[in-house]
Amino acid sequence: MDHSSGKRSASRMEWLKKELQRGLILFLYLFTLLFLFVLNEDIATRQMGERFFFSGFALINALILTKVMMAAEHIDLAHRLSTWRRIWVILVEAIFCTVLFVVVHALERSVIGLIHGETLSGSMPSFGGGGVLGLFIVSLIFFVSLLPFFTFKNVARAVGPDRILAILFNRPETSKHRGSA
Fold it and tell me: Does the N-terminal or the C-terminal CB of the chain have fewer CB atoms within 10 Å?
């Protein structure tokens, strides 16, 4: 094995390690979000005398949406919109991923329904209780839930990953002159 192939191999391993870390963080964020959706639906159905709770939904969809979001990262909207103010980039990325998630979820549910012999219209998911209003509310909740993620991502990109880690995990520096004018 020559020196350059060893460097390429180490470089690939480093890339893979970073991708796995990003994927794990994204998965945990999405799983938490989806698990809270499922938990909320469980509480609502229990009040109506039904039993709903199925945490596998959150797990499977978090895995699928993590993959979708990581694939969407390759579109690199932030880079394409690099001349825009960061707030607009954050909003566009959150809207893009919200639409992408809704479409992927609808496709996933439709394919599963068709496999189980349902009609296309019968296999479409019911968002937030159904109808356009339910779809709008679920999309809005998802959009708002993605804002902190994209805000953090864009701020970290602006100040650098080392600086953001230092801000989050290092103790604040104290000064003898704190509070004095």
Answer: C
Helical H segments across the chain, by residue range: 3-47, 55-73, 77-80, 86-115, 120-123, 131-159, 161-169
Distances (CA, A) of 131 to 7, 62, 127, 173: 54, 24, 7, 53
Interacting residues of 105 by C-beta distance below 8 A, sequence separation 6+: 61, 125
pLDDT digit string, tens, across residues 55-114: 577 788 888 888 888 887 778 777 788 888 989 999 998 999 899 888 887 787 777 777
Q: Which residue shows structure tokens 């979001």?
A: 69
Task: Report how far residue 28's alpha carbon sits from residue 31's, in angstroms, rounded to the nearest whole number.
Answer: 5
Number of H helices, E strands in the chain: 7, 0
Name the maximum alpha-carbon separation found in the chain: 73
Please tell me the total number of residues recorded for the chain in this structure: 181
126: its two tokens? 């019911």
pTM: 0.70
